Amino acid sequence: xxxxTNTPQRPAEGYPGVGRVLVVIPTYNESDNVRIIVERVRRxxxxxxxxxxxxxxxDGTGAIxxxxxxxxxxxxxxxxxGKQGLGAAYLAGFAWARERGYDAVVEMDADGSHAPEQxxxxxxxxxxxxxxxxxxxxxGGKVLNWPVHRLLLSxxxxxxxxxxxxxxxxDATAGYRVYRTPVLDKIEVDQVASxxxxxxxxxxWRSYRNGMRIAEVPxxxxxxxxxxxxxxxxxxxxxxWRVTVWGARARLASVKRALGxxxxxxx
Length: 267
Ligand SMILES: Nc1nc2c(ncn2[C@@H]2O[C@H](COP(=O)(O)OP(=O)(O)O)[C@@H](O)[C@H]2O)c(=O)[nH]1
Ligand SMILES: [Mg+2]
Hints:
By secondary structure, the protein is an alpha/beta fold. The protein has a single domain (2-241), classed as Spore Coat Polysaccharide Biosynthesis Protein SpsA, Chain A (Alpha-Beta Complex). The protein is 45% helix and 16% strand. Helix 6 packs parallel to helix 9 and helix 8 (196-209) packs parallel to helix 9. The radius of gyration is 19 Å and the shape is globular. The relative contact order is 0.15.
């Protein structure tokens, strides 16, 4: 088949200055996209490996993923029993990477919103950072083909996260990221239960609180061209609710610290 014969077959020698990298691509009903995205990643960054984390997609994405993995030693598949959400798929992918000694993991959507051609830019930034976020809302960042309500939702979510939680990240819901593997232990990623956008905010928040170096690199984000979005109003609601609770907790903790310091001073 022509699709698999042009896939480069090179040993995974790693990405200079970062080491062995695994790009985790969660999929649910991405049969129109999975082949294209894997080929683009392999071409854009030939030394990195790919893991497709598929939740038993009814549209046969998993079988296409098997075909891709069979034709390329650097492409792998993790079959999961059913739809359990984006966050759970990433956690399983991260665990897979840690078991195999990868130095860094990348989060990337299957639908082409995160251009694989920009991956080297993110990985270059990972040489001097623990976490790299491909950001729409820093200078040079862009969004293509989004209706105004999505632009407002995304910008609003990031602004709200900065104000409510004090998280100094411009694009807190962004899902195009690099984590150096030791970070995952430090932020106790195993204990994360959030899904969707909240998963991304949660990991950024944990990284920030644990003193990780977070770099934001401008990306051009394109809306998906094929297939349907899996995000729902529930996922947006979860993010809003959790950000409010986390923010309130953080503020309360700092007020308590300030009061504690005041009491000590007065005795
Ligand atoms: N494995 C898995 N992947 C998922 C699930 N939900 C969404 N995804 C994938 O996560 C990525 C982002 O989802 P998408 O629907 O594009 O979200 P949007 O970009 O916010 O509209 C895509 O690659 C989806 O196929 C899920 O429950 N399980
Ligand atoms: Mg998408």
